[in-house]
Structure formats: structure tokens, C-alpha cells
Request: fold
Amino acid sequence: MIDYTPLYAQMENTVLASWLDHLPAQVAAALDESQHGRLPEWRTILNNLPSIKPSQLNLGDGVIVGQPDDLPEEQLRQLENQLRQLHPWRKGPFDLFGLHIDTEWRSDWKWDRLKEGIAPLNGRLVLDVGCGNGYHCWRMAGDGARLVIGLDPFLLYVAQYQAIRHFVGDEVPAYVLPLGIEDLPEALTAFDTVFSMGVLYHRRSPLDHLLTLREALRPGGELVLETLIIEGEDGQLLVPEGRYAQMRNVWFIPSVLTLLGWLRKCGFVQEKLVDVTPTTVEEQRSTDWMTFNSLPDFLDKEDSRKTVEGHPAPKRAVITAIRP
Reply:
């Protein structure tokens, strides 16, 4: 069952209430089974997950749900089989009743790098654009956010989120909607914090993306931007003619100074560099839960400082900025 009724009820008493005029119809259209051939299969998996209340829930140190003795061993093996049918698991990790979902990305490492450099989330309305299966949404809720809304149109990731939600329950105010950023109402001017992590370089128009993020923020709200960057001066950027690290849809990778200039041009202030970290093969790699090629396959075998195409190897920056 994919049910957003609890989210709609929470939105009614917030500045997001006007979105409810359109949101249920948007969600229904996105979840139309004729639009995705595997959606009925994923719904069946979700409907057959075991009904059990976990003995613990820890969203502060990770996404840790329940303990091993909450489920009989046979039922735990069945759960593992069900969750593996939602392959590939890219963002995480998750721990369900002692079952460790070892995802492609150590998304917890990214969270550890940025969480002390952003405004505290306690009591805030939060938007996470391109959130994948919602790993960071759970962490945001764990840090006290009043309500977290994640957007991702890829329905497999929504199914993975719903599987975790099945065990977490409806008390935690974190939701992943099957929508993209283009589905946001114009000039919403509502969120206290907006995250865009791993999205900017996939946008054909990065400045339009930044302007859309700005419109979603209330005055004084904070943007948390995480994206690929290159070394370089103001005005420098990489525009790969073909692929970048085997990704087809990479358009613009700026230097930090260029990115800060983009933010100012789009009307942001108080822009701050929080972190710059090269992506390592320990942070992004193939696992039993994501068996496709990953970063070790995308780097030059002779020189790991370069991608297989000869571009600088992935390096990511976290930057915050304020909508005045």
C-alpha cells in the first residue's frame, strides 16, 4: 500500500497547505501502473512485507530499525528475499532487524560531513530534491525536522522508501513523493531548508535549477547544495562532451568559485563552503545489494585521479547559502 494520507494531514496546518489543491492528483498520476511495468510487482512486495512493530528506532546514528530478535530467523530470511527484489539499493545503509542493507553509497558519510555545517533542522520544514530512496530524509527527521518532503520520480526508489516506511510507521514525519522538482508549485516560498544533493550536474540549466530551489525557500531559509566540482578559478567549469565517469547526463561541473558566483547571481547571500571531499572507492562501490558497476569501474585503471574518459576524478563540495 502506497498511502500519503498522513503527509496530507500534516501539510494542512502548514504553509504548504495550498499545494494540497494539486498534490494528490500529481501523486496519483505518478503512481499510475500503466506508466511503469514493474510497479504492480513492487506493490505486491510492499503489501506482503511482515507486519511487526520494531522494538527500537534509531535515526540519529543511522537508519536502524528493530533488533535481530524482533523477527524469527525464517521470517527474516523471507524479508531479505523481498527486499533484494528491489535491487539496486544505491543510497543507505539501512539496518532492519539486524539485516544490513549494504548500499552502493555510504550516504551516512556524506551526512556526517555536512550535518554540523548547516542550520539546525529542529522544527524546520525541509525539502530534499532528488532524494533517491529517502535515506537522508530519515536522517533529517532524526535530527528533529518538523516535516521532511523528498522528491524523486524514479519509482523503484519510492518503493524502497515505502519498504522502510512500512517498518518505521507513520509517526516519523519523512516522506518521499514520486515527483520531480518541476512538480513543485511556482514561488512556493515555504521551506526553511532545501537540500539539493547530487542533482545540479544533471541539469541542463544549472542556474534555472538554483532559481527553482530559491523559490521553494522562505526568506531567510537555507539552501544546502552538494555537487561535483573541479579545481579551478572563478569562471572555470567542465562541460564533458561525452560521458563523465560513465554517466551520460552530466552537463556542467563548476569550480567552487564559479559555483559561489552562480549562487550570488541567482540571488543567494551568505554563501559558505562547508566541505570538499574526493569521492573514494570506499564511499561508492558495488555490493551484494547493488551488483552493477560502480566507481572502481569508472576510474582510470592506471591513474585513479582520472575517470575512464580522462576527466578529473569525482570531487564533491557542500555549500550553504541563504535566500534573503
Summary: The first strand starts at residue 57 and ends at 58. The chain has one domain: 5-322.
